[in-house]
Amino acid sequence: MLKSLLAATLLTLLPITGSAADKAPAAPVPKQDATRRTGAVQGDAVAPVTADGANAGAPQPPKAVKHHAEEAGLSAKAVPLFEIGPFVVTNSMMVTWVVAVGLIVLAQMATSKQQLVPSGLQNFVEWMVGSLYEFFEGILGGHMAKKTFWFFATIFIFILFTNWFGLLPGVGTVGWGAHAEGSFILPKFHHVESPLLRGGNADLNMTSAMALLFFVLWIVWSIQEIGVVGFLKHIFGDGKGGIFMVGIMLFVGVLEVISIAFRPVSLSFRLYGNVFAGENILESMTVLVPWLGWALPIPFYFLELLVGLVQALVFALLTAVFTAMMVGDHAHEEGHEAHH
Known about the structure:
Blueprint: H1 19-23, E1 39-42, E2 45-48, H2 63-70, E3 80-84, E4 87-90, H3 91-112, H4 120-140, H5 142-165, E5 175-181, E6 188-195, H6 204-236, H7 242-261, H8 263-288, H9 297-339
Antiparallel strand pairs: 1-2, 3-4, 5-6
């Protein structure tokens, strides 16, 4: 993931010399003319210099050089690979599809030949699912855990493996790019501007889609558990306590609505920001010292493994807590009544 180190060559400004120029009378320069009667030597041509000191006819750096200078690090926009009718497939979408197919194959392999005493892959999958169920049951209660575990477990596992898949060699480093100069060890290389694969959660579209999906499910689960009236009472209060308290609860309810509306934004930007920043750090460490580009990213690589786990846990934990805050008390009451 090496970046180009090309820099535009500065042109040296030289005065016009020669006998013909010395003998020719100088014409007066109008005050309103912004272009001076001086120039810069560019091979055999002379280009005028504008009032701000820039060469009007000076050759500009190639577009590729400008692109490298402006787009230092990972691009914030995923690269489109191909189109299926109006549907555009990007390199980040390819990663999510690969991870999804991999998880499906892994689940099929773990459950194809189930044994009473699990071992190997079946044992690992059962341990992971069982641990996750106990974790979310402690937050949501038994009733809501049975109802919503499929989403929270899936979102945690999917985010975790998507984050780790983005750290595999070749993701972000194999694709199309521009020829660039390198270091002593790598004299010439190709700067990858359009990688074939890109970290799925380094795309804000992906994290926003997951956050919006949770937001829709959260509304559905809340209305199913406490009803529309209970949903409104939870936000704006039950209307008891007089006019003064009603006014306060109405004001607090409006703030709560704003807070709820911004939850998908905070969820999506938190995950996207951490993953996107991590990939840029790895790339920066690669080009910071070119001859040590193979060694400097290693400690940050292991750090990103930890960040990938933490961010998956944070996303799943926050979504579970938001659900428990709305329907947790009602679910615990139903579970207590059913127990007795």
